[in-house]
């Protein structure tokens, strides 16, 4: 926070700092409501359980890093609501990050053979390790969006492109591409 001797400026800076957490809280509430509403679907098109795994690779902003990792497709909790936990390791900006995350994504179409947008969120710890010593960890919350295309014949295996917005104690933005190899 900017500290200044002028009381009027200090108040304005303080008010700006207070508005940012309120916006994050509203986004978190909206995400939670969306996930709860998404779980009320009547039938599953894909069962819950192991459906595949694969690699992921991308770029991170703040910290500025390249990240790589893997994910597992555990199927659908409800109609079009996918479970996709993952692990991403980021390197760069004199920092290493390790980010395991449990994610739920809602696909807007049931057709796995078509490019399909999705929206979701994730939660998990982020471990930071500085190049010259020191480390810390935070519990992070993400809002993510993306588009994916799979094979229409067996509903397993798919390519995706996604973006993640860090809402709470997470990198500001991640752009990721990945592939899931189905069983």
Task: Give a written overview of the molecule.
- By secondary structure, the protein is of the alpha+beta class.
- The chain has one domain (43-182): Porin, CATH 2.40.160.20.
- Helices cover 17% and strands 56% of the residues.
- The protein has one helix and nine strands.
- The chain has one helix at 7-38, and strands at residues 48-61, 65-78, 81-83, 86-92, 95-107, 116-130, 135-150, 158-168, 173-182.
- Strands 1, 2, 3, 4, 5, 6, 7, 8 and 9 form a nine-stranded antiparallel β-sheet that branches.
Q: What is the quaternary state of this protein?
A: single chain
Please summarize the sheet with the most strands. Answer: 9 strands, antiparallel
Number of E strands = 9
Helix content: 10-25%
- The second-level CATH architecture is Beta Barrel
Number of helical regions: 1
Task: Give a quick precis of the structure.
The chain has 183 residues and is an alpha+beta fold. It has 1 helix and 9 strands.
Task: Lay out the secondary structure.
Elements lengths: L6 H32 L9 E14 L3 E14 L2 E3 L2 E7 L2 E13 L8 E15 L4 E16 L7 E11 L4 E10 L1
Antiparallel strand pairs: 1-2, 1-9, 2-3, 2-4, 3-5, 4-5, 5-6, 6-7, 7-8, 8-9
List keywords for this structure.
alpha+beta, 9-stranded antiparallel beta sheet, 17% helix, Porin, disordered N terminus, 183 residues, 9 strands
